[in-house]
Amino acid sequence: MLKWRWGWAEEAIRKSIAIKPDDPKGHSQLGELLRRRAEPGDLEKAESNYRSAIELDISYAPPHRGLGLIYLKQGNTEKALGEFRIYLSLAPQAEDRAYIEQYLSKSRGGEGGS
Amino acid sequence: MKVAGWILLLTLFGCSLWVPVGGKYVSNDSFFEVELPAGWRRAYSTRDGLTMTRDGLSLQSVRIVREPFDKELPFTRRKLEKNMLPQEVAEIIIDNFRSNQNISNFQVGENQPATVGGYPGFKITYSYQTKENLKKQGIYYGALIDQWLYRVFLEAPARHYFPRDLSILERVKDTFKVTL
Prior knowledge:
The structure holds 2 protein chains of 2 kinds.
Chain A: H1 2-19, H2 24-37, H3 42-56, H4 62-74, H5 77-90, H6 97-113
Helix pairs in contact in A: 1-2, 2-3, 2-4, 3-4, 4-5, 5-6
Chain B: H1 2-12, E1 18-20, E2 23-27, E3 32-36, E4 41-43, E5 49-53, E6 61-68, H2 86-98, E7 104-116, E8 119-129, E9 135-145, E10 148-157, H3 161-175, E11 177-178
């Protein structure tokens, strides 16, 4: 059932990308699905899809958030924070702003305290 | 006759015994301690934590629950992973609400980071409609701590009870400490 749901969603997004290949939204949504599913190999594919979305529209915010979360969990804090800063600059009213600001402030605390 | 009376009582009160609370409460099974308000009652026996109410569970419930993080959530098929960020855990908890077909018009008010029991966690405020068309509101604090999902939450009808009991939940959450 779970695989069916992920599969169905992935198929729908891929169809949307096929119809509008130049729309960053589809690539970003596919990246989001892969990041959340997180099966072996998914994170690499997610990163690639987020990158495709950014190449199509550098001012589109969501893929920067996705990249930030991937890097943060991989322990690549510097890259993560860079993406989060871009994300907030592009989407200052983002719904998850409080979480992102927390990641940024924790990092500032770590830098000052180390 | 006495036995029949007890059976009747247990049937009427759902086989739960309720005891008054007030002051410090320590759960040795679920490894937490908390200050509880006077005038409320808790279920004498609750697996995995604490359930308390003042006017009855249909009018308000405050619960503190500890469950293994890998226990299946009742409605979503998505699962929690040990190394998830609070933000990711919150997303799955929201998905669990959205997948619940017993409620409708589920809406999230706030979703933000919070400290829960001294650990990084999240806070979600939400509302939904029951099948009986009653609008309920809730506030849900949660955190993945070691191999457990701890959650502290209040649910009550949006009218009168939720606004009245919100401060109680906040006080409970502020005094909640995990003692692992």
